[in-house]
Design brief:
Keywords: Membrane, Transmembrane, Transmembrane helix. The chain has 704 residues and is mainly α. The protein has three domains: 310 residues, no CATH class; 180 residues, no CATH class; 149 residues, no CATH class. Helices cover 62% and strands 3% of the residues.
Amino acid sequence: MWPMFFIALALAGVFLYVPGFFFLKALRARASVALCCAPIVTVAAYALITAILPYIGIAASWATVFLPCAAAGALAAGVSYRLRPAGSARRNAAGALGRSFRRAVDEEWFVIALYALVGLAVVGVIFVKNLDGPDSFLQAWDNSHHLSSIRAFVESGNYSMLTTTSYATPLDRSFTPWPGEAAFYPSAWHCLGALVVSATDASVALAANAVNALVVAFVLPLSSALLMGRLFPGRRGIVRCGAFVSLAFATFPWGFLTFGPLYPNLFSYALLPLAAVSFMSIFDEGASVRERIARAAMFVVSVAALACAQPNAVFSAGVFLAPFCVAVAAKASRMLAFAKRRPRRAAWACGIAAAAAIALVWWALFHAPFLQDVIWFDWPAKEEPEQALANIALLSFSYAPAQLLLSAFVLCGLICALADSRFRWFACSFLLAVFICYIDLAYDGPIKHLLAGFWYTDQLRTGSMAALFAMPLAALGLRHAIRFAAGLLNRCVASTGGKATPYVASTVLLALVCTAVYYPSYDMPGHHHVETGFGAIRDRIEDQNSVVKMNYLDAAEKEFVKQAEAIVPADQPIINSPDDGSIFLYGYEGMRTYYRYLTGYSPESGESQESALIRSGLYRIAEDEAVRNAVRSIGAEYVLVLDQGKDEDLGSDREHRRFVFKDDIDNELWSGIRAIDDATPGFETVLSEGDMRLYRIAYADAVQ
């Protein structure tokens, strides 16, 4: 299946980059900029077309989503090229600047290639190599939704994020436990996965892994490259160093792959640098009004794309850009009448006014009704204040082992940035993100929700925001460290009569630094085991994707499910207890399970009366007419049980085989299903192996 994985990876790249590239070329963007920014435009275009298709009766697929967008972009680019004046500004610039212009263009492409190659190498070693097959997947709560959403998109032909549900096909809607539950969910990541499945007929899990590999290996590095070029214009050494640190933080992007998993947030944070660059470009000196309007429109598209991927990235972008806005306002104070007399006072006044306006917008959004469920979602504090401070300083963020060398580079970069007025604002962005993360890690209460509520008060999300903002600082610190060390090395060589070789020294030092940062965990003979940041990440990916270890849905259960699928008609729902691992069966296998969520089972959430009767009283079907009527209404004939018995019957293996109460799962929700055994009246055992059962409801003939 590995050839299919690489085909899926390549197609995911085509689907994500081609339409946006053509649209941006139509706007006469440089090819390098169009390539890096293409995902922003593509995501927005896909969101628009997938929202329209259901209303005109056209099923979504790669042919009806990708091809129209790519064709429209190519047509627009072709028309723009033909309408371009013969003496275009670009060609005039090339002729006037000659070699320097070509050198700058070559440097842009060199940087893009460098970031992409480093990203590909790191993802290959850290992520792809540690998958237990291309279709292995992390069996965690959020992933049941991610896999089910991709399959629902593909099966229903409706990729619209305005009406997402795991019960999307007409057949599924006929028996869903939540009639009318379809609602908005940011699904840009799921849409890309569905396009891959649609084009290749690959498994959903394989497509998900391919999309994740694309996002981490290419989308995040290329967007980081564009941001680095923007933050450090003309500083080639710093920009190049950024290629080696953009994926060096264990918390982000790797934490989103191994906890949750938070794939949509991974995608949105990977796009965030592009939104930041589009906003910053609005305020370029010398830009015409038309150019500023076009860039503002691009920023609006960027915000829409972030919202389609995961809306909290919009707030992360706000945190990053808030100090920039203050700096721009302070600089704009020169236009005030009294600025010539008191320039410093004018700058302070405008900066404070901008900060107050930002705080007012934040306060208004904090009270916005549509955000209250997110803002007041509570993740309790994880650390004491002193420990939280240490964890942040060491780049652990209470998720990964300390990264001592990388934290030294960030500290060096932070000091250098604070000392340089050109870089001071994004150093403040990092400090602001660190403050939000610190409050989130160490405290509970209203202030925590005011600051971190837009990220569900989830410490991994706020810590990842801080890690993302630390990337330019790490590159700045790395460049200074290499320059200093290379200078010492060259002086030592020169003192012995040798010839100084700055590039060789810098390359060797950079290789040593990368080895140290990305080094796996190891044993120190005679002392202890040393767990490195990336050693921990590699171990987690390998363990979480293992197909042989005990898990909610293990290898034996997958084989049992295949046997059950051969018996149960494809158009019939199968009653299941989702906490036993069957929560993954719809997304992973396509089995038409009745229960596809782990929570939300209550009248207040819109659950049907039939569902409530079935999950609490199915074992009474032989004696309870109401239960029989409920089963009749959904057309089910079979019951699947993967972990038979009560929680205590599973002994010490319980937490590895069943979602339990510590995961905020109320296992009593499915007590009526779990109470069924081989002796329960009304059920016939069709398949039996260990504690796995497929029952046929004996009243099924009457039910139908």
